[in-house]
Amino acid sequence: MKKISLENHQEIIHYLSKGRSIRQTAKKTSVGHSTVGRIYKKTPNIPKNSKNGRPVKANHSTSKVLVRQFKKYELRNASQGSKYLKAYYNIDVVPQTVRNMLYKGGLKAFKKPKKPIISEKNRKKRLKWAQEHKNWTPKDWKRVVWSDETRINRFGSDSDLYGWRNPQNKLTKQDVRETSKADGSRLMVWSCITWDGVGYICDIGDHNMVKEDYLDILKSDLLNSLNYYNLDNNRTIFMQDNNPKHKAKLVMDWLNQQQFEVMDWPPQSPDLNPIENMWAKLKKMLKKSYSQPAKNKDELFKRVGECWYKIDAIECQKYIESMPRRVKQVLDARGLWTRY
């Protein structure tokens, strides 16, 4: 580190003694901020001024009360917090000040995740299911074949997309998200995952699948997936959710005739199904792998297959191994939502 001259050192002390800030002194003397700061700390006869800026309107005690109101969900946003301080403490602050107070109090803003509605009846069913499976080890979960359907959009996610543009300029191709009402703008797919890898994926189309369609899928794609990995049907457990077509008598009669066991699944529990994570991975792969939307539904399904079959067994195992943690979170939440 280059030493400064005695003249520079005295000049820095002079400005600091006159009440100049570290930044102002550094600018006046052409010396780095860190060097001026060290001299400021080490020189005892320089008055240590308190921090500059507007005085704090709300004291520590009031801030604690405000934070407590948010923790109790009595207040939900910064605007409500601002009105609360004005009404009860006659403290007039803007919402940003409330946000700063909440941040200092240990709270952080977050985007509320979308979760299914869990009624009291379903909460008890989820809790009961978790209690029944709390002692299952990863070895037990290895036996489960996880299935589900998902929708794939030709033009990307249904969620909002954001960007930056000059509002005075005309919209360009980069400024919009193109959509189409033509047939083939989306499709539904079904598949399953096992400990050994992903199962066969099939195109349901863009219509609502009925029980007969679902039974055909089980007879073909499910059984083909089990055979592909040479799974022992006597030890295999098949998981499906409680969609009405899954629980139709026609379907359940066929499932009950199979050698594999069918898992009793709790309602409103996509957070407990590892294949949901695989669907998310598939959609990220599609977005990353192709810069332009598919020309039609056939091309879209071809892309889906190319990405799906690239997912290896290690990826499947990573999410299946998380099942003990998911079960524990259901128990801790007394049947309510997990973080998954």
How far from one another are the termini? Answer: 51 Å
Instruction: Give the CA-based shape.
Output: elongated
Biggest β-sheet strands, sense, barrel: 6 strands, mixed
Spans of at least 5 consecutive residues with low confidence? 157-162, 179-183
Provide the CATH superfamily of the largest domain: Ribonuclease H-like superfamily/Ribonuclease H
Instruction: Provide the succession of SSEs.
Output: HHHHHHHHEEEEHEHEHHHH
Q: What's the number of domains? A: 3
Mean pLDDT: 87
CATH class descriptor name of the largest domain = Alpha Beta
Q: How many beta-strand elements?
A: 6
Please tell me the CATH architecture of the largest domain by its name. Answer: 2-Layer Sandwich
Question: How many separate helices?
Answer: 14
Q: Determine Rg (CA atoms, Å).
A: 30 Å
Strand content: 5-15%
Structural class: alpha/beta
Helix content: 40-55%
GO molecular function: DNA binding
Domain Transposase Tc1-like: 88-135
Organism: Circinella minor
Pfam families: DDE_3, HTH_Tnp_Tc3_2
Structure description:
- The structure is a single chain.
- The chain is α/β, with parallel strands linked by helices.
- It has three domains: 1-53; 60-104; 120-156 and 186-332, Ribonuclease H-like superfamily/Ribonuclease H (Nucleotidyltransferase, domain 5), CATH 3.30.420.10.
- The protein is built from 14 helices and six strands.
- Strands 1, 2, 3, 4, 5 and 6 form a six-stranded mixed beta sheet that branches.
- Strand 2 (186-194) and strand 3 (197-198) form a beta hairpin.
- Helix 1 runs antiparallel to helix 2 (22-29), helix 5 packs across helix 6 (95-104) and helix 7 packs across helix 14.
- The longest helix has 18 residues, at 211-228.
- The radius of gyration is 30 Å and the shape is elongated.
- It starts with 5 loop residues before the first helix and ends in an 8-residue tail after the last helix.
- The relative contact order is 0.11.
- Mean pLDDT is 87; it is low at 157-162 and 179-183.
